[in-house]
Amino acid sequence: MVELDLSAPFDQHRATVLPEWIDWNGHMNVGFYVVAFDKATDTLCNQFGCSWEYTREKIGMTFVLEAHVTYDREVKEGDPLRITSQILDHDAKRLHFIHCMYHEAEGYLAATNELMMMHIDYETRRSAPWPEWAMERIDKLAAAHKKLPTPSQAGRLIGIKRKK
């Protein structure tokens, strides 16, 4: 298992906008933001021991139950990305967290991805408590992140605001 990184926010994931991620508008297509965020989720899951190997060894897995993405500023082919992760809440089976994607060189916020993840028993494919060793690590990460302000993008509803 990797050494636990208690930086707040968790700041290990880096990526580059690939040519195949570009749409006809000349910037990263909306679907590939989710792909980049999914890779950042893998990096976060490695911290509490629920990585690809965890699923491959048929121990357990994680499913995303809900996801919200905000697109704050465009990124283009070749742009370096820095994706941070912040745990917002958790319980025995679920993890609520948000990723923030930044243009690594220019520092601006490009997008956010708020997720609700559930731990799943491999055999039954039903929700199950996190393994004790994973829960210990999640508790430590959550405690480190608790001091952070909640990003304004977290918990937002989608809709057209009307003036009354």
Helix content: 10-25%
- Biggest sheet layout: 5 strands, antiparallel
Gyration radius (Cα, Å) is: 17 Å
Please give the alpha-carbon distance between the first and last residues: 55 Å
Question: Could you please say which CATH topology applies here?
Answer: Thiol Ester Dehydrase, Chain A
Q: What spatial order of strands do you see in the largest sheet?
A: 1-3-4-5-2
Instruction: Provide the β-strand percentage band.
Output: 25-35%
Question: Oligomeric state of the chains?
Answer: single chain
CATH superfamily: Hotdog Thioesterase
Organism: Reyranella soli
InterPro entries: HotDog_dom_sf
Protein name: Carnitine dehydrogenase
Pfam family, one: 4HBT_2
Report what the structure shows:
There is one protein chain. By secondary structure, this protein is α+β, with helices and mostly antiparallel strands. The chain has one domain: Hotdog Thioesterase (Thiol Ester Dehydrase, Chain A, Roll), CATH 3.10.129. It has 3 helices and 5 strands, in the order E-H-H-E-E-E-E-H. It is globular.
Nutshell version of this structure?
The chain is an alpha+beta fold and 164 residues long.
Reconstruct the topology from this structure.
Blueprint: E1 10-16, H1 30-47, H2 52-56, E2 60-71, E3 80-90, E4 94-103, E5 109-121, H3 132-146
Antiparallel strand pairs: 1-3, 2-5, 3-4, 4-5
Characteristic key phrases:
single chain, 164 residues, alpha+beta, Thiol Ester Dehydrase, Chain A, five-stranded antiparallel beta sheet, 3 helices, 5 strands, Carnitine dehydrogenase, HotDog_dom_sf
